[in-house]
Amino acid sequence: MTKEKRKEFEQKKEEIEKQTDTDNIQEYINQTQRIQAEFENYKKRTEKEKELHTNYAKAGLIKELLPILDNFNEALKSIENHKDKDTFEGVKLIYNEFLKLMEKEGLQEIQVLNCKLDPFKHEVIQQRESEQEESIILEEIQKGYMFKDKVLRTSKVIISKDIGGK
């Protein structure tokens, strides 16, 4: 091999090595970026799953506390006209604090009065003849609640019934 050919050969060899190194580096960069993106997606997915599990646990606990909320409400109604106003105010204060805590955690009361019946949120206990349009809620028998966007307990309601000729 002549010196010129050898020199040409060495130059081509160096070019190929440089190209190969550049290709390998780019491949490593691409692979690293893919791994980083997969890891970010994994973190987001696990955060969502953690939030779902937390909300599921909260919803279960809050649902178990609803009868206590009902009992507080009934206690307030029964002592509202009691001679001892301090007792009423004390129970009302505790009830309001308890309700505020539940609402802070995501509990929402289902609105019912003068609303149209929604079978996903309301349970009809009775129908009553009324001048109102059919299936309008006239009275609430038991409060219903939602946790975030999920119904925890339907409202038990009395709805309007069509009066004969309408």
Explain how this protein is built:
With 166 residues, the chain is an alpha+beta fold. The chain has a domain at 108-166: Head domain of nucleotide exchange factor GrpE (Nucleotide Exchange Factor Grpe, Chain A, domain 2). It contains two helices and six strands, in the order ααββββββ. It has helices spanning 3-79, 85-104; strands at residues 107-109, 122-129, 137-142, 145-147, 150-153, 155-161. The strands form two sheets. It has a three-stranded antiparallel sheet with strand order 1-4-5. The chain has a three-stranded mixed sheet with strand order 2-6-3, with no helix packed on it. A hairpin with a 2-residue loop joins strand 4 and strand 5 (150-153). Helix 1 (3-79) packs antiparallel against helix 2 (85-104). The protein is elongated. The model has no long low-confidence stretch (mean pLDDT 87).
Which stretches are poorly predicted, pLDDT < 50 over at least 5 residues? none
Range of helix content: 55-70%
Q: H/E series, N to C?
A: HHEEEEEE
- Mind telling me which CATH architecture of the domain at 108-166 this is? Roll
Strand count, sense and barrel status of the largest sheet are:
3 strands, antiparallel
**Quick one: CATH superfamily of the domain at 108-166?**
Head domain of nucleotide exchange factor GrpE
Mean pLDDT: 87
In total, how many beta strands? 6
The tally of helices reads 2
In spatial order, strands of the major sheet run 1-4-5
Radius of gyration computed on alpha carbons = 34 Å
